Structures are given as structure tokens and as C-alpha cells.
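Encode chain A's predicted structure.
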Amino acid sequence: MSSVENENPTRRKEDADLKAGQDAVTPLNNLTQNSLFGLSQLEYGQAADSGSMPPVTKKPKNTAKNFVKAQTHSAKSAAMNDSKRVARNRARFSYALRLLLDTFLIILAFALAYIIRYWLQIGKEVLEENQVAFSEYLPTVSAFTFILVVSLHFKGFYRQSRVTTLLDEIGLIFSSTLVAVATMIVLVFISRPQAFSRLMFIYLIPLAITLLISERVAARTIRRALWKRGVGVRNLLVVGATDTASRLMQAVVERPNLGYNLKGYADSQLRFSEWTLPPRYQNSQPVPKLGSLQNLNELIYQHDIHELAIALPATHYEAINEIMVQCRESGVDFTLVPDIFELRVDSLNFTEINGVPLIGLKMSNLRGWNYLLKRAMDILMALVAIIATAPLMLVVAIAVKLDSRGPIIFRQTRVGKNGQPFTFYKFRSMQVDADAQIKELLLLNETGGATFKITNDPRRTRVGKFIRRTSLDELPQFFNILFGHMSFVGPRPPIDREVEKYQEWHYRRLEVTPGLTGLWQVSGRSKLTFEDMVKLDIYYAENWSLWLDIKILLRTIPAVIRGEGAY
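Encoded structure for chain A:
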């Protein structure tokens, strides 16, 4: 043994101990025991600070800290990857299952159509020489199934979120089925015009639609039953303490059938308006503020967040972008809740002339043939509604007359399309001098804008409370619709004093005919703020379609029955 090796055995021992200590910190489980070289982290720090430990041992301390950070980051990364992998596998399994089930139901619909046509011979007798074996239809069945499934796929049927309504799915099923049947009729009767029965395809349309809708209804029922038992529920964190965030949180709380578990919200500051009520759970407990934007990653892991709803003001685009990057890295889904800035950007048309970009304001869809179609529907539906509800209107009129003094019909000047005034009709639900009392009640306004709404309005009569809750006071507006002052669907007509308080962008809601019901009526009715009402009205004007009107009318019925936001 050399003299160098022998000259300082104590130092050799310390070096050996140091190496052994560095090796010992390698496994993560050694760190979880909170020990290093036989000392706790607290004891180690105290010893190092007091100078009672050799200076060389301070290096492993920093190494251990760095190692802890590295291992923690590695563990989080592994958890992120696991979460992403599980989510992808679950989505793939769900997609494959739905494809197989829909394929089976489409083939079943074709088989039922064959039975109805060739076995039961409904519609017209099939002669013996015209009988076609089902096996000859197999190529047609395969082609039809492929076309329908592909059509559903490209229409986004298999990418729908949990907030997608049944009406949306029915619309996709209906349009895709018609596309598939029309395509097959063209293909079949070009290639083999005399081989197959045309009635087969007539029967196929309602059968395929019915089976696919039944499957979606059953799937929704099962899914909601599972959500009630906590299976498949997604933990939701709302990012932003804004009025839009408050409305979103309240909507999630009030609709547990969406399958979300609202954990709380996070923001660096409170941005709620003074008239915005704090969101509360159904047990009246307030929705908690979990933290700030700086510790968002910690909140995601601490509360096992599956989805983020980003409801920050659009001016905070840097923070929004950082949050989206964090979500992508952690495998957490996110959605953006637009404010008025995004709404205005969405209202722009972008074109170009020889490479020069041009920006124009998107016009209302309710022009030309669209307007004529909507007006024709209004006239027809108004006539039917007046005839059908005439006995009910008579009963309400008698009740209003017997309940309190004053006229049966309340007449008021409202502002219609393009700012044109018209006389608005309702059954009187308030005292005769109700308008004169508004100044005394302005401080109780709950919409925080140009409109005036309070929950327990003291001006209501006894009958008025009932007919407002059930929306029976709106029945005379069928005559406004018939006369062309209003439509069944559109923004609610404002009064003069409300229009006087409009900001410039608010006037866009006057570009279309006011309506009996609209987007904001089926999205919370009087619970919404004025700003949210205007946003929804502008969205309706710019994105009008016949199917959108039908959806709003169908959604109005349960909203009226439940009395949501009506007072």
C-alpha cells in the first residue's frame, strides 16, 4: 500500500462515506423517508449552519435538493404521460365502440326495411319474379353503412363533447342519413335501375334515424346514471374571477347531468362586477377560490383536474397562451370562454384582393331568402298558435280583470328592427302605475345593465305572479308576430329608456326582428347579465339558420315549464 494511501485514512473514510451517501440518494424511496447520511433534512440543515459538519458535506445537500426537484419533475412528467395515455386509450375505445354499435344498427335498419318490403310487403305487393334475396343487397348494405358512418364522422358526430345537446345529435343523424340515402339512390339506380325496390330506401330513412336516435338516448341515460354514481365525472377548474366565469360556474352547478365536478376557480385577482353574485353549490356553499394563476400547475395535480375552462379577459392573451401550453403539456383538456373581444373578432370577415388583406364586419344572416323563409314560418305558426290558445287567452283575460283594476292588455312602445317603434302587447301582470315606481326600485336591478329585472318585484299582482312564472302573459304577442312587429325567435324588444343606455356595439341586436324567445331565454332567461344577453343576441343574428330557430323553440318549452329565470 502506498504512502499516499496511508497518509490520511480519516479523509479516505470521509470520501467513502460521501460516495456512499451520494449513491444512497439515487432511489426516490430513500428521499421519501426524509433522510440524508442518517440525518433528517432539518437536522442536516442545522448542523451545516452551525459549522459542525465538514464543509465538503454541503455539496451533497445541494445535490440532494437538485435531485429532489429533478425526481419530482420526472414524477410529474410521468404522471402527465400516463394521464395522456389513459385519456387517449379511453377516447379510442369509446370511438371504436360507437362505430361498431352504429354499424350494427345501420345494418339492422336495412334488414328491417327488407323485411317490411319483401316479407310483410307493406306499400305494394311484390310479385314473385320481383323477389330479391337479401344476399343481393349485401354490397348495397355495405356501401350505405360506409357512407353513413363516414358522413357522421365528418360532421363531428363522434367528437361531440358532454355539453352537446340531444337536439344537436338528432340534427346530425337526420342530415347524415338523408345524405347517405340520396347517394345510394343515385348509385343504385344508375347501375341497376330495375333490380331493387325504391320503397326499401323510403323505409330505410325513418328506421335508421329512429335506431340511431334511440341509441343516443340510451347512451345518454346510462351515462348520466353513471355520473350520478361518480363514474366518469370530470373535475373542472375555472380559470378567471370574471362575470363570465361566474355565470359559467353557476351553469355547471345547476346542471349536474353534464358530468362535471366543479372544484373551484383560480385567478390572481377578483374581477367580478359589483352586481355579480358569487357562485354557490346547490348546498348554498360558495364555490372556493383555490389559488392564483402562478400556482396553476400545483392546483391541477392537487385537485386531480381533468379540464380547465379559461374565462380570463381577452386582454390577458399572454397568460391565456401560457395556460394553454401548460394544459397541453399536462394532458389536461381546456376550453376558452369568449368575452366581448372574441365576439367582435368572430364578427369580422377576412378577404383579400391580390394579396392585400381586407377586413369587414359580418352582416346578419337574416336577409333575402332567409328572411322570407323565416317570415313565412312566423305567419303560419302565429295563425296556428292564436287558434290553439284562444280558449286559454280568454281564461287568462277573465282572471286578470277579476284580480285587480286596470286594463286586461298591457300596451307599451318597444323598439323593433332597425330602431322602429311598435306597440307591444302583453297580459297585464303588474299594478297600473308600475312604470312610475321604477325610479324607486332602480337600486334593486339584478341585470347590471340597460334592462331592469328584479326577482320579487313588488309591483306584480296576484295573478301576475302566476302568469309571469308560466309565461302566459306573453300569449298576446302572437298578434305582434302576425302583424310583423316580432318573430317567434329573436332578441327581446327593448324599451326607449334601455336603448338610450346602449353602447355602440349594443345596437347590433336591433339589426334583426325582435322575438318571443331567443338564445338568452333558453340560456338562463332573467339570470343573465345584460352584457351576456347582447352577446347571445348578436351571435344569433350572425349565425341564424332554420335549424337554430327550431332548436331554440324546442328548448324554450322545457325552460318555460320549469320557469327558469322567469319572474
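Residues 1-14, 16-61 have pLDDT under 50 and may be disordered.
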